[in-house]
Design a protein that fits this description.
With 371 residues, the chain is α/β, with parallel strands linked by helices. It has two domains: 211 residues, Glycogen Phosphorylase B (Rossmann fold), CATH 3.40.50.2000; 154 residues, Rossmann fold, CATH 3.40.50.2000. It is built from 14 helices and 13 strands. Helix 7 crosses helix 12 and helix 10 crosses helix 13. The longest helix has 19 residues. It is globular, with a radius of gyration of 21 Å. The N terminus is likely disordered.
Length: 371
């Protein structure tokens, strides 16, 4: 299949051969949705990744050309982070990739891929690795303490890998600043695609909604505690290591749904009272989806939410991570009078079409600069 025979509207033109690289395909998150959108732009492009677990990620990947490393043969899925010493050599074993354009979707490892000298290597960085550059350091737990001496050399090697790329892109100004701090590189902000067209804006319902991976830093515990304390109806969609702890602290008004297919999440979004984003997200696709469904958002005042939401119009922010602050924000959110259709219109700034248009302009300019 040639580029000219399958080009879709908004696709960058005259890029030649394209390869997509992603850390690992065993999750259902925003980063994987970005990769799927890239694959819809370049459907002939192979996707290189360390390991691929079809049952643990979006089913749309099954129809794509997925190419894995030797790590794919290891019997791991949810314990994939324990393989961290092997990811660098795994990605090195794939290269150098000889494509005209290589787009790496990275929050830890994909930017380590080696490219041919003629290739334009563009990294879409969701965030510099949290376990290297944030408070979630490798070696923090008792079991990992012997690994602490590896942090400094891994940071040095990671910075070298990052600086081999020709261009860095990222999702938000928030992460752009983090990239500058970690790597000394100036990235271009290209907000990720949000499938706003899948939602119909509707009037508010009765139940609060959280859709999140259940990890400690996501702070879903704040919402569960607040709903339990005030007797508020709450739906929690998602899975993760915090699930049992959250169940134990939840009252009878809190319902845990586990992971749900997109159509079920769409129904919950369209019927909820408000969406709650209790932690600071790098960008935050779900609150934009909530606006597309006509719902205001109760959001922690940090991260990408400050760039996508407007306090008093499309959201009610809270700045203290406490149940009391969250409950006060829920009350202010209930008072927001913005019509559902107005919220949906605001969300369209981050549609898949807008992503394609922005990505097209950036890559076309980068190719022209190398000509």
């Amino acid at each position: 299949m040639t580029a000219s025979s399958s080009r879709t509207p908004g696709e960058p033109e005259n890029l030649g051969s394209v390869a997509i690289v992603h850390d690992y395909l065993n999750q259902r998150g925003g980063a994987e949705r970005v990769v799927l959108e890239m694959a819809s732009i370049w459907p002939w492009a192979p996707i290189y990744t360390s390991l691929y677990r079809p049952a643990s990620t979006f089913p749309e990947f099954r129809r794509l050309d997925i190419r894995t490393t030797f790590l794919n043969a290891l019997p791991v899925d949810r314990g994939f982070r324990n393989l961290f010493p092997l990811y660098a050599p795994a990605f090195a074993s794939l290269g150098p990739l000889d494509a005209d354009v290589i787009v790496s979707s990275s929050s830890g490892w994909a930017h380590w891929i080696r490219s041919a000298a003629r290739s334009l290597h563009v990294v879409y960085c969701h965030t510099p690795a949290r376990w290297l550059y944030s408070g979630l350091h490798l070696g923090q737990s008792r079991r990992q303490r012997p690994l602490r001496p590896l942090i400094k050399p891994l940071r040095c090697a990671d910075k070298i890998a990052a600086r081999r790329a020709d261009l860095y892109l990222t999702s938000s100004e928030h992460i752009r600043r983090r990239i500058r701090e970690a790597y000394g590189l100036d990235a271009v902000a290209v907000p990720p695609p949000v499938d706003t067209a899948r939602f119909t804006p509707r009037a508010r319902g009765e139940r609060l909604l959280v859709v999140s991976r259940l990890l400690a830093y996501k702070r879903v515990d704040l919402v569960v505690d607040a709903a339990t304390q005030a007797g508020l109806p709450l739906d929690v969609v998602g899975a993760g290591p915090e699930l049992e702890s959250l169940r134990a602290r939840a009252g009878p008004t809190v319902t845990f749904h586990g992971e749900l297919p997109d159509d079920a999440v769409t129904e919950l979004m369209e019927g909820c009272r408000a969406f709650v984003l209790p932690g600071a997200e790098d960008f935050g696709i779900t609150p934009v989806e909530a606006n597309a469904a006509g719902k205001p958002v109760v959001a922690f005042a940090g991260g990408g939410a400050l760039e996508t939401l407007e306090d008093g119009y499309s959201a009610a922010f809270f700045s203290r991570p406490t149940s009391e602050a969250l409950l006060e924000a829920i009350a202010r959110c209930d008072a927001i009078e913005t019509a559902p259709e107005r919220l949906a219109l605001k969300a369209k700034r981050f549609s898949a079409t807008a992503f394609r248009r922005r990505l097209s302009a950036v890559l076309s300019d980068a190719r022209a600069a190398r000509a």
